[in-house]
Specification:
- The protein is an alpha+beta fold and about 180 residues long.
- It contains six helices and four strands.
- The protein has a four-stranded antiparallel beta sheet, covered by helices on one side.
- A hairpin with a 4-residue loop joins strand 1 and strand 2.
- The longest helix has 19 residues.
- It is globular.
Length: about 180
């Protein structure tokens, strides 16, 4: 399998992370996660966890955030769900809520959307539970930025407030989308 085919498959299955929003309107999620049967995927998870740990502990962790965020942006771009809902945030919220139980609180006056990912294990197929450091969650920050930028047609800011990899029950993001015109 070619690299891009692999990434499209992961994203197309909604397995790329936090919201895993791809194809939400068209595909029902599996009843339960499938067990890892491919030793290559288990090895890749281990290596990603190791690499991210090195990045987080290295001399310039702040400089490593950008490439990890860019990975999340690419995941959102490959999935393309936010593009389908451009200008229709409520439709996007409904699709993600239906598919994954993700909740959204949109403070229109304040210009923020709080995203609360459903309880359960991290949805990223590259995460090795109890090994992958929370630094990897910068990928999901990038995912949120790209998704909401596509929805609102402008750059946004996203902040991670709670993370499953850091021991939280949910992943929680606050996305500053700017105030809406009246």
């Amino acid at each position: 399998m070619e690299r891009m085919d692999f990434l499209r498959t992961l994203c197309g299955l909604g397995a790329c992370g936090c919201m895993s929003e791809t194809r939400a309107a068209a595909v029902e999620p599996p009843a339960k996660p499938e067990a890892v049967t491919d030793a290559r995927l288990a090895f890749a998870r281990h290596q990603v966890a190791t690499l991210v740990g090195f990045m987080a502990e290295g001399p310039n962790p702040a400089g490593c955030r950008d490439p990890i965020e860019r990975t999340g942006r690419e995941c959102a771009r490959l999935g393309g769900l936010a593009e389908r809902f451009k200008g229709d945030p409520e439709g996007y919220f409904a699709a993600a809520r239906r598919a994954w139980g993700t909740e959204f609180q949109w403070d229109r006056a304040g210009g923020t959307v709080t995203v609360v990912v459903a309880e359960g294990p991290c949805g990223c197929p590259l995460v090795q539970p109890k090994r992958t450091p929370p630094f990897w969650c910068n990928c999901s920050v990038g995912y949120q930025k790209a998704s909401f930028a596509a929805l609102f047609g402008r750059e946004v800011k996203a902040t991670l407030k709670e993370s499953k990899l850091a021991g939280g029950r949910h992943c929680v993001f606050v996305v500053d989308v700017g105030q809406q015109a009246s």
